[in-house]
Amino acid sequence: MSLKNIPLAKRDFEELQLEELIKKCDRKECDRYFLIFFDKAHEAEAAGETKTEEVFTLLGYAASMMLKPSSPTEPVTPLFVMHGPRSAIIDDFSEDHLKFFGEIVFDILDPELRARIADILWVKKRDFRAAELAIAAYLETATILEDPVQWSACAKRIERAVRLAALLGRKAGHLNKVISHIETVLDKYNGEDPKFLSERLMGLLLEFQRDDSAKYSALSEKLAKRAESDGDWHRARRYWETKAHWHKLAKDADNERTAQIKVAETYVNAAKVEADGEALTRYVAAAGHMGRAIESYRRIIGGANECMKEGMNERIEELHHIMLEYQERPINYPKFISTESDLNEAAKNAIARVKGKTLYDAIFELALMGESPEVSSLRKEVQELAKEYPIRPLFPVVKVNEKGKVVGSSSNLFSNDPKEAEAAMRANMFKQAKFHHTIHTQGIIEPVRCQINLEPNVRLSDFIPIVSNNPLIPEGREYIYAQGLHAGMEGDFLVAAHLLIPQFENSIRHVLTQRGVITSGIDPKGIQDERSLNKTLYLPEMQNICGEDLIFDLQGLLTERFGANLRNRMAHGLMSHNDFYSVQVAYLWWLILRLCCLPIIAQIKEDEAQQVKDSAAESGVIENAETAKAVKGAKR
User: Burial of 607 by CB count in 10 Å (0-12 exposed, 13-18 middle, 19+ buried)?
Assistant: First the structure.
């Protein structure tokens, strides 16, 4: 349906009998309403009722957008964004539409729809009365949707209410009302809710520094212990982390550290659960959990006294031995796709791997699916193509951009100069790698990503455990990575690329620095600048750490003119909106997700066997079968 932008009046809304329609919805949420509104718009179109069609289409547009409470300035986002088409965005509403919304918003009886319309008016017009109306309506609809099991819808509306109230300022009085509502809900459940409602609500209190640390640290401990008794180590971890945050707010370093140790031990217990499973790939997951436990202890140890440091170092050594035992288990994980594979069949197989799985199992399954193309295979493919098409290699390799400008040039494959011939070979190999990226993205990444998104409420906070205590990610960068990974999972590769590419560049420097490599240079004036990916990805240490195949893949994606060159094109504003929704950006998002799940920081020794053992102990996290196999071959 599309808007015709015809004039509307309040009476056009009053004739709809909207409340009767909404009563038929089994769940009072906008994402249920918009389908009904669009159906009614179609009926009105068929009946020639132009104004009724326009009102229902307008309401459908408003209801179709997704609530994103974490953003104070852009609280609603489009339902989908594809390579060209998209669903409604807030900027689609004209001044006439906003005027119409202003006329009807106080007469909308349903609090969910009233909150949405009022919020749109606040964002677009900065209408103070609309903001106040939205805050009250969000709390009202949160109460209607309150459910300790299906908790996300309620929590999102409370979060949006508190952020709106904060924008209006404490003097307006709304922030205290929302915080009082949060405290009432927490008191109501008193640590008996079985999921994450209390964790999310306490997170909001922590953010706005509600000073009741003693009460809520005790509540967090109660919820953590309940989760442990249920064997839910992920949930226990989240509540121990919350407890640590309350102690940090109270400047209680000893109890904060104790809670952090509890966090580390949840990884140990999760590893033991995985290791008890029958599937061989369970040992890879177990090793990954154990690596996170080690990394957690390493981050705690800094502020501890000497006695505690000694005890934690002993615990780290003990966990290292257990992790190495897990890594030595035999692994034979199947590859899913080749260049000859049928994409439809590959997509069906890939979807089947994640269907019905929990969110984390599905995400890690996606990380397991495939690997960077082998450099030796790419070279062989280029050589075979040269034999099949003998004229083509005689010409220089030239790359032009969308404006027809030459942005890359190399000699031909049969140049008498070995360096020129090798440069031409690499240029062709980067072009050939794009074919593999297309196959993998269309056959696996996109079908699986869409399948994962069929499950409701894939949230930003779901990615926090993936990036926390991760050796690839420096402390303080976790939330940025989580935002980028979450945006990519939702298909918003524009945001994902802008967040992840710069952070990944910093992570490469972090990995090198951990290995004692200097990642900055000094100019003649004594100024020290950090080296970019154009330098760091080509350092010999990177191949030692990550292996030839992965580094070649990253070079092609991020810095090579004959590859996607995403780092440089993005940094210099050379990418259009559609460029961010290309195969290469989606593939890069997957590759970074994979590396976040499976970071290995290898420490190269002369003896290959010792190298594998040392790198596994040092890396901290090993979480998939291909990675474990590669560690045994000292390739990654």
Answer: exposed
